[in-house]
């Protein structure tokens, strides 16, 4: 079986360079987050040099089709409900979700993430719902009685 390995090793350690490969996918846009305006009911994403967006929902909105979006691009939209919650986001014609339109979490302060891949015709999207804010730990407030009542007596 070593006769199969030897030619592979010879190729791997060869100093000759092969022909150039095909061009790679478009580069990822910068990593800054663009806060979208919530002043109008319609929200437009300008994807020129951007991939990351956020919006704080203070009313119902329509997420319009993005502009300046090239094939193969990936965009992310973080949607946060305001202190009232129950805000709705509807989607323009290019957004496609598995099993139809996706409804955001409606709880006050809820954070959802929409991730979309543009295939040249449609935005193929997935909605990740219900990211919770971290709970602040206050020393001395852990209730050991609930742990002991369940039969757990030691932390590992």
Could you give the topology of this structure?
Layout (H helix, E strand, L loop, with lengths): L1 H12 L16 E6 L6 E2 L6 E8 L3 E3 L10 E8 L7 E3 L3 E2 L14 E8 L4 E9 L12 H6 L7
Parallel strand pairs: 1-3, 2-4, 3-5, 4-6, 7-9
Antiparallel strand pairs: 5-8, 8-9
Structure commentary:
The longest helix is centred in the first third of the chain and has 12 residues, at 2-13. The chain has helices spanning 2-13, 144-149; strands spanning 30-35, 42-43, 50-57, 61-63, 74-81, 89-91, 95-96, 111-118, 123-131. It is mainly beta and 156 residues long. The protein has 2 helices and 9 strands, in the order αβββββββββα. It has a 6-stranded mixed β-sheet, with no helix packed on it. 12% of the residues lie in helices and 31% in strands.
Notable features of this structure?
single chain, mainly beta, six-stranded mixed β-sheet, 9 strands, globular, 156 residues, Jelly Rolls, disordered N terminus, 12% helix
Report the CATH architecture of the domain at 26-131.
Sandwich
Unreliable residue stretches: 1-14
The chain-level mean pLDDT equals 79
SSE run: HEEEEEEEEEH
| Proportion of residues in β-strands | 25-35%
Strand order of the largest sheet: 1-3-5-8-9-7
Oligomer: single chain
Q: Determine Rg (CA atoms, Å).
A: 24 Å
CATH C-level of the domain at 26-131: Mainly Beta
CATH fold-type name of the domain at 26-131: Jelly Rolls
Which sheet architecture does the biggest sheet show? 6 strands, mixed
What's the overall geometry?
globular
**Sheet/helix structural class:** mainly beta
Helix-residue proportion:
10-25%
Strand tally, please? 9
What is the end-to-end distance?
49 Å
The number of distinct helices, counting runs of at least 4 residues, comes to 2
């Amino acid at each position: 079986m070593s006769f199969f390995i030897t030619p592979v090793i010879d190729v791997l350690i060869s100093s000759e360079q092969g022909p150039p490969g095909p061009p790679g996918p478009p580069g990822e846009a910068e990593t800054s987050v663009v806060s979208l305006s919530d002043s109008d009911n319609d929200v437009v994403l300008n994807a020129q040099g951007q991939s990351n967006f956020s919006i704080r929902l203070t009313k119902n909105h329509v997420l319009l089709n993005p502009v300046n979006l090239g094939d193969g691009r990936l965009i992310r939209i973080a949607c946060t409900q305001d202190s009232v919650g129950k805000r709705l986001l509807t989607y323009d014609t290019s957004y496609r979700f598995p099993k139809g339109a996706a409804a955001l979490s409606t709880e006050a302060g809820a954070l959802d993430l929409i991730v979309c891949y543009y295939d040249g015709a449609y935005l193929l999207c997935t909605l990740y719902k219900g990211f919770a804010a971290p709970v602040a730990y206050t020393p001395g407030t852990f209730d050991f009685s609930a742990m002991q009542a369940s039969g757990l007596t030691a932390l590992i």
